Amino acid sequence: MRYRFDRRRVRPDQLIREATEQYELRDISIEEPDLESIIRRIYVEGYEQEPVNT
Known about the structure:
Layout: H1 12-22, H2 35-45
């Protein structure tokens, strides 16, 4: 099973907690996107910085 999520909207630990509540997990790994795909996405879609909450 694979999950993709927006780190600006949900934290990885929340996602893992919800998955463990619904499924019996035996192993888990977290992969970050490679730098080239991040740069490509910024080039194609542009970059919009999220406002900082204080």
